[in-house]
Every structure is written in C-alpha cells, then in structure tokens.
C-alpha cells in the first residue's frame, strides 16, 4: 500500500507499506503562509534550489538521503529514481534556472513530480511519462506553467491519476491561480475533492485528486 499526502504548495510525500517515506520539495511553512509539513523523509527529493521547495531541514531525519537537482538514475532503498533536467521558465533557465522532473518507482507504481516546470514537455519526455500512475503537476501559473498549459500536458501524457500542486490556497502569500482556474479545462477525468490531505494510490482511476490543505 502506498499513501500519497499533500503538504501544501509543491510538497508531497509518498509512504510505502513499510512506512519508508519519500518527500518532494519541502517548504518551511511560515515563508509562504502555510502550515509547516508534518512529515519526515527517508528520501528527500528537491526539484530546484528555491526557498519554497528546499527546506530540507524541516523534513530531514539523521538517516535521510537527500538529492537536490539530481539528474540521472539511481536505486535508493529499493526505490528507483530518475531525475530529468528541465527548466523553470520558457527560456531554457535564463530567468529562473533549472528544474528537475523526478520519476520514481515505488511498489510497482510510477509517480512523476514535475516540480516548478515552466515550459511544455519535449516529445521524449512525454513518451517517458505516458500512462504514468500519478502525475504531480503545477497548475498555478506565474512561476510555472499555467492552468491551460498543465491541462495540455495531461492530455498528452494521459496519466492514470493527477495530483495538482503549486496553486493558490487560503493563506498562501504567492500570486498563483486557484484550483478552479485549472478545473475549467478538465475533461474525461473525474474530479475528486477529498476531506483529508492523503489518499491511497490505486484507489482512484482517471481522476484529478484534490486533497484538503
């Protein structure tokens, strides 16, 4: 059993059945106006070194393994990781730097976290992500792809399920679009609004999953 939990903004944790936990893009809470992530990671993956994504000390244990902007492949504690270099903007990083797309394989599931992706995907990356089990994708615009661009990527990749991230919620002090600005584009997917922060991977099919923050 794999449990996915959203901790606000771009911070997402993936917990395996043995409680081994992967944390993506931790924030410190106070800097962006949200509660601090209440999770500790055995493996911490940072897509890019910006303040709202790299608060490693908040989620780190003494034994944690940390990968920042890792590009390549690795096998860590039975978790297969691939980090793929992308950009935080539409100008090959000249404005906001690089970004990493992480693809991890956990207990038979393939999960992709797109970080602060700022541009359309290459055909090669679309093929790599096609039919992935869970696509974690920014939808809030301003610093990343916007709602319409996010939907275009989803249409191309055809993931089984989608977890939107990096959008405006109450308290967030960043100028992002709210989730409803993305949902107007959604077709042929169920929209599932949860009463909790977490869900079990495999519980939904062809769904846009929106946890409560």
UniProtKB/TrEMBL annotation:
Gene3D superfamilies hit by this protein: Ribonuclease Z/Hydroxyacylglutathione hydrolase-like
Pfam families: Lactamase_B_3
Source taxon at top rank: Archaea
Name of the protein in its database record: Zn-dependent hydrolase
């Amino acid at each position: 059993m794999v449990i996915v939990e959203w901790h606000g903004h771009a911070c997402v944790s993936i917990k395996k059945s043995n409680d081994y936990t992967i944390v993506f893009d931790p924030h410190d809470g106070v800097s962006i106006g949200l509660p601090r992530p209440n999770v500790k990671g055995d493996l911490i993956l940072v897509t890019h070194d910006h303040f709202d994504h790299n608060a490693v000390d908040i989620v780190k244990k003494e034994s944690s393994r940390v990968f920042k902007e890792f590009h390549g492949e690795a096998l860590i504690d039975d978790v297969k990781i691939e980090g793929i270099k992308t950009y935080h903007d539409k100008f090959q990083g000249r404005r906001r730097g690089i970004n990493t797309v992480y693809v991890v394989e956990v207990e038979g599931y393939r999960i992709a976290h797109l970080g602060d992706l700022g541009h359309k995907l290459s055909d090669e990356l679309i093929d790599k992500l096609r039919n992935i089990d869970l696509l974690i994708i920014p939808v809030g615009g301003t610093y990343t792809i916007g709602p319409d661009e996010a939907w275009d990527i989803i249409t191309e990749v055809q993931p089984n399920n989608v977890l939107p991230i990096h959008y405006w919620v109450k308290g967030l002090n960043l100028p992002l679009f709210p989730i409803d600005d993305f949902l107007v584009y959604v077709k042929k997917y169920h929209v599932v609004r949860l009463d909790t922060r977490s869900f079990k991977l495999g519980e939904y099919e062809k769904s846009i999953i929106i946890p409560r923050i």
